Amino acid sequence: MPLLSIVIPTRDRAPYLAASIATALQSTDAPLEVLVLDNASADNTRDIVAAIADPRLRYERSERRLSMRDNFERGLRLAQGEYIGFIGDDDGILGHAPAAVHAIFDNPKVDAIAAARAHYYWPDLEGGRRGSALLPRGEGMELRNSRQELRKLLDDSDYYRLPCIYHGFVRRSLIDRNSKDRFFLSSQVDIYSAIALSMAGVTFAFSHAPLVINGGSARSNGASHFGGGTAEERNKWKQEDDLGFLPGFDNHATVGVLIVESALRYAAAFDVQLEDIFPRNAIDQAMHREHAARIALGRPLDNFDQAAAAAGSTGRMPQTGGALDRVRRLARSFSATMPIDAAARGVTDVKGAADLIQGLLARGRQRNFDRPGEQLRIALRIGRG
């Protein structure tokens, strides 16, 4: 069986790392390596890895601090597997995932695997989500065309339902075919990989049941930019970023506008138009939502017109139905995912969350409204933020 590389980039996050590694190593059903990319950590990251006695675990340290995209690029060079997937150092892999990945890739037509993600919110996360988890209710797997799915991306900005190196699994050959001097041409490594790989027009498998747990902690990059994380983490990311944002995108308030920014970088590198990636009306709506979000958050608008012009959009359009839209999103989320009070069930880290979720999946509990009071209570708590 070909080797699967699970790559975990990390930087000064030793308190989370051991649990993440433990989830990746728990499977013994398929050949894999777990590659930890230490980005010049100043804490005890090296000791955490050294304490884990497993020959499948590899540790590679950079002695100088790299940008996120450079560290991810290094991971592509160092990974030895025919199949590659990245997770964060506060994320997790479900126990059945490595064997499932190998089984799906047995189909030579499949170049990548995406899946609905489970979520675990670490106890240190700010806001109402901490100590909870979300489990997708879906089951089964289907084959999809990446270009067709990419055209729909700006409808909901869920780029993880596309081929994606982060929280997904990709054949190395697909990565190599879509690289120039390097693969990552944007600081938004997850978003960019979804766009670049999807533009190849490949067949990919989408699993309605989760393979990966998205961990949200106070140190998460995503949480630091969109709520629940620390300003210190956000500022550190900006200081280390070697590209910055295209003019007008630096005060971003929505994921949609970050997708547009990464798509613009891809379009420039591969000599295509933005409309070759997304429909014009979807681009305009993404910019309209960004404009409304900046106003709602009190962010400056002095350079917004630069971003809108780069996207070929007027950008400025009043948005209505904000509160109603939020209620609708929460209702859709509740119907698609099972809220769990992880803390009340004794879960304190992502390894505990992986064990809990694996057990629920084995018993088919995600299909029903098991513990309805708990589900409703956690859903309302998350909805209040």
UniProtKB/TrEMBL annotation:
Any idea where the Glycosyltransferase 2-like domain is? 5-145
Does the UniProt entry include the keyword Iron? no
GO MF terms here are: transferase activity
Sorted keywords for this record are: Transferase
Q: What is this protein called?
A: Glycosyltransferase
Organism per entry: Sphingomonas changnyeongensis
